[in-house]
Amino acid sequence: MMKLYLNATSPYARMVRIIMLEKQLEGNVELCWCDPWSDDEALLRENPIGRIPTLVTDVGMAISESLLIALYLDEQCSVRPLITADRKEETLHVAGLGVGLMDAAFSTVISAKYLNNEANDSVLSQRGLREIQRTLEHLENNVECYISFETISIGDIAVAVALDYLAFRLPELGISNSYTKLEDWRSNISKRLSFKETAFE
Ligand SMILES: N[C@@H](CCC(=O)N[C@@H](CS)C(=O)NCC(=O)O)C(=O)O
């Protein structure tokens, strides 16, 4: 049995959980809920980096970094491949944008929490907001080319989770009103069971 260390609010952990469900691997993975911010002992024993998501494989090896875990899980079973040969470049392009969006949003949220609200006016925070804006514009203008409606790829999952995370943690940015094609796409993909079962709360 594999183990997945996670919490309920990490976009990276949610992405991995969705992948686990889409790949029908939930019976093979025990969920280990933890708080990575309070130096969880069990997590630190498995992984000195102490971040979630951390997947501990059947041979006891801990893998961190959500995209590496995604690649590993994708190879664990042939159900619903997350990267297909015919759309490989688009998929990897979009996956990088999705995780980049998560990084920019997450660092804004976490610096406001651990530093103070003035952190939001800092140069880095302003750069993060511009990254978010540029990336959302790019996705909005290319939604038909990059994002599929019928199948689901690692790129789709990363972008959809990043959009949900932005709506959850930074609602003041009003993203759902500004990028309407992306919003339609997000509300469609969010109907999947894997998204409903893992919704941020
Ligand atoms: N690049 C990593 C980011 C993971 C990450 O930043 N996780 C956060 C929670 S969202 C964490 O565990 N932070 C605890 C810490 O940094 O001590 C990934 O893709 O998995």
TrEMBL record:
InterPro entries: Glutathione-S-Trfase_C_sf, Glutathione_S-Trfase_N, GST_Omega/HSP26, Thioredoxin-like_sf. GO terms for cellular component: cytoplasm. Keywords: Transferase. It comes from the Bacteria. The keyword Transcription regulation does not apply. Residues 1-81 form the GST N-terminal domain. One of its GO terms (molecular function) is transferase activity. This is Glutathione S-transferase family protein.
